[in-house]
Amino acid sequence: MSFEFSFNNTLFLYAMTLFSALTTLTMIYFLFFRDKTNKEQKLPKVDVIHPSPAPKETIEFKDRLRSGLQKSRSSIWSRVKNLINGTSLTNEDKEELESILFQADISTSMVEKILVEVGKRGQGTNPIEDVKIIMKEVFIKHSPVLGTTKQLDQAWGEVDSAKLNKELQVIMVVGVNGVGKTTTVGKIAANLSKNGFKVVVAAADTFRAAAKEQLKIWCDRAGATLVAGAENNNDPAAVCYQALKQAIESKADYCILDTAGRLHNNDQLMEELKKIKRVIGKLLPEAPHETLLVLDAMTGQNALNQASQFQQALGQLTGVILTKCDGSAKAGCALSIVERLKVPIRFIGVGESLEDLNVFKSDEFVDALFDDH
Ligand code: GDP
């Protein structure tokens, strides 16, 4: 009897413990979990979008150049290629070839060279490659000389800025209005700054109000210092002088001068540019280290006349920057410029964006004139 009693008692105690444990667990569930789950369920659904890395610039300059030169290729160089690739070249073909090359503003001497080369064709020769070679040779013959001139091209590429001669380089950029001077100065400043160089830009096209604003945007983006005329200071030489002073004092690597492209007349423009050279020479006798002439490829043969005028006033130029090759069928005029002026093409522009300007490479250029891919 006593056994039965104690057994029932123990059973009762076990049952009570189990019951209170279950009650506690249920309360915990209702108090903490159930409420929370319900609350979560009540929130409207959202998409959490984590930042993805900015898209990398994937279009290589080689491809930009090829697409930029499409107009030249289709209206001039593909026709040249089709003609010289034929099995034989009749007199009529030769005349047509000559006329196409003249349309592209290729100089007479260059046209003659090409015709002679094409005439030499025999078995086992590759006329297209032969013509490409003589075109490339013109550029190679007048490629930039080693030394300070080369430095800008090197600094353009992804080089370690510490390895280059860090002496201040003054780059004077000249050209008539509208050729793309200011934009090009902005692009060069942006690229040099990106590569770790300290750049000071002079907005010395004081006769064109928009030039200062344009350069301000480029310099802000690039982290380059801009020196521009304050109110009533329309003296380009004074702006250049102050920019160079600023560059010397701040131990800059480059001082780039954007100059005027139009004054009341051409003689005044040339006199102003000569004055800039004289004035900056007082601060730094070897300045400018480079005088780069910007030419618009769309002007074709006319670019040569402009170049001769600048060269007469400023002495030998250190290079030409050929812009707007994308909008022109006459990008081939680069050949005549180099041949006639004996000045290398240093940079080539095929569009308005920063990535559309690059160091000129003759192989890349000639291949892009002839080949689609
Ligand atoms: P500036 O008067 O010589 O200083 O000329 P700007 O720098 O103001 O340029 C005149 C116009 O040409 C601007 O709209 C530029 O964006 C444009 N430009 C400059 N370089 C190129 C190029 O390589 N291709 C094209 N399509 N436009 C260009």
Break the fold down into its secondary structure elements and pairings.
Layout: H1 2-42, H2 61-68, H3 70-84, H4 91-103, H5 108-119, H6 127-141, H7 148-156, E1 169-174, H8 181-194, E2 199-204, H9 209-222, E3 225-228, H10 236-249, E4 254-259, H11 266-283, E5 290-296, H12 301-314, E6 319-323, H13 333-341, E7 345-349, E8 357-359, H14 362-370
Parallel strand pairs: 1-4, 1-5, 2-3, 2-4, 5-6, 6-7
Antiparallel strand pairs: 7-8
Helix pairs in contact: 2-14, 3-4, 4-5, 5-6, 6-14, 8-9, 10-11, 11-12, 12-13
The protein binds guanosine-5'-diphosphate.
Model description:
By secondary structure, the protein is an alpha/beta fold. 55% of the residues lie in helices and 11% in strands. It is built from 14 helices and 8 strands. The chain has helices at residues 2-42, 61-68, 70-84, 91-103, 108-119, 127-141, 148-156, 181-194, 209-222, 236-249, 266-283, 301-314, 333-341, 362-370, and strands spanning 169-174, 199-204, 225-228, 254-259, 290-296, 319-323, 345-349, 357-359. The protein has an 8-stranded mixed β-sheet, sandwiched between helices. Strand 6 (319-323), helix 13 and strand 7 (345-349) form a beta-alpha-beta unit. Helix 3 runs antiparallel to helix 4, helix 5 packs antiparallel against helix 6 (127-141) and helix 6 (127-141) runs antiparallel to helix 14 (362-370). Bound molecules: guanosine-5'-diphosphate. Residues 175, 177-183, 211, 261, 323-324, 326-327, 349-352, 356 line the site of guanosine-5'-diphosphate (GDP).
